[in-house]
């Protein structure tokens, strides 16, 4: 009975998570006249909605917008993870004056609402003639994704046993080699998870 309840719970969670996506696909396959039908499957299957979305003769540029979003999200994620992994390692490994303050600022920045900076950023980028450029999207998104990336990786690096790095140093590895050959492979799951979170956050923006 416990296993049955466990599997039923998993099925319930899967249904709740997948049902919106299923309904989205079903609605996309319906004709415009049947958009608000309540049947759980499409009764008049059509691809007209996809043709309209991809058509360029109606002023649409769906593929161009999709490519822009993908480029901005990938660049933002790559830069945020690259900077974040070194920052998180330094905060977890070294003690220096103001370390607590820096960590607190990073945490506060991760909770700061990005919408509050839209107006000043728009004015700044207008003065720099950056409106309509990739820079105007990538730089702010990096500043928003970086605190989240650093704080996520920081909690992981704090859990790593530093004896592994010290053992690598004893075996003759430099600090950089110990980081690259020992710590980074161990941190790979956290890096991929953080990259996914940063990508989704940037994509949603």
UniProtKB/TrEMBL annotation:
<keyword id="KW-0812">Transmembrane</keyword>
<protein>
    <submittedName>
        <fullName>Sugar ABC transporter permease</fullName>
    </submittedName>
</protein>
<dbReference type="Pfam" id="PF00528">
    <property type="entry name" value="BPD_transp_1"/>
</dbReference>
<keyword id="KW-0813">Transport</keyword>
<dbReference type="GO" id="GO:0055085">
    <property type="term" value="P:transmembrane transport"/>
</dbReference>
<feature type="transmembrane region" description="Helical">
    <location>
        <begin position="178"/>
        <end position="200"/>
    </location>
</feature>
<dbReference type="GO" id="GO:0005886">
    <property type="term" value="C:plasma membrane"/>
</dbReference>
<feature type="transmembrane region" description="Helical">
    <location>
        <begin position="104"/>
        <end position="125"/>
    </location>
</feature>
<dbReference type="InterPro" id="IPR000515">
    <property type="entry name" value="MetI-like"/>
</dbReference>
<keyword id="KW-0472">Membrane</keyword>
<feature type="transmembrane region" description="Helical">
    <location>
        <begin position="70"/>
        <end position="92"/>
    </location>
</feature>
<dbReference type="InterPro" id="IPR050901">
    <property type="entry name" value="BP-dep_ABC_trans_perm"/>
</dbReference>
<feature type="transmembrane region" description="Helical">
    <location>
        <begin position="137"/>
        <end position="157"/>
    </location>
</feature>
<feature type="transmembrane region" description="Helical">
    <location>
        <begin position="7"/>
        <end position="25"/>
    </location>
</feature>
<comment type="similarity">
    <text>Belongs to the binding-protein-dependent transport system permease family.</text>
</comment>
<dbReference type="InterPro" id="IPR035906">
    <property type="entry name" value="MetI-like_sf"/>
</dbReference>
<feature type="domain" description="ABC transmembrane type-1">
    <location>
        <begin position="66"/>
        <end position="205"/>
    </location>
</feature>
<keyword id="KW-1003">Cell membrane</keyword>
<keyword id="KW-1133">Transmembrane helix</keyword>
């Amino acid at each position: 009975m416990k296993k049955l309840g466990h599997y039923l719970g998993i099925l319930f969670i899967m249904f709740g998570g997948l049902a919106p996506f299923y309904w989205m696909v079903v609605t996309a396959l319906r004709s415009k006249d049947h958009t608000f039908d309540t049947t759980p499957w499409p009764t008049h299957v059509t691809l007209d909605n996809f043709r309209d979305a991809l058509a360029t003769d109606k002023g649409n540029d769906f593929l161009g917008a999709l490519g822009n979003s993908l480029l901005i999200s990938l660049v933002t994620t790559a830069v945020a993870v690259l900077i974040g992994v070194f920052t998180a390692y330094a905060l977890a490994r070294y003690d220096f004056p103001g370390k607590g303050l820096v960590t607190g600022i990073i945490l506060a920045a991760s909770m700061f609402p990005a919408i509050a900076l839209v107006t000043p950023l728009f004015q700044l980028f207008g003065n720099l003639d950056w409106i309509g450029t990739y820079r105007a999207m990538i730089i702010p998104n990096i500043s928003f994704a970086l605190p989240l990336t650093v704080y996520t990786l920081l909690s992981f690096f704090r859990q790593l046993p530093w004896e592994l790095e010290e053992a690598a140093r004893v075996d003759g590895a430099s600090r950089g080699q110990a980081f690259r050959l020992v710590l980074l492979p161990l941190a790979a799951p956290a890096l991929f998870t953080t990259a996914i979170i940063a990508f989704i956050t940037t994509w949603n923006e």
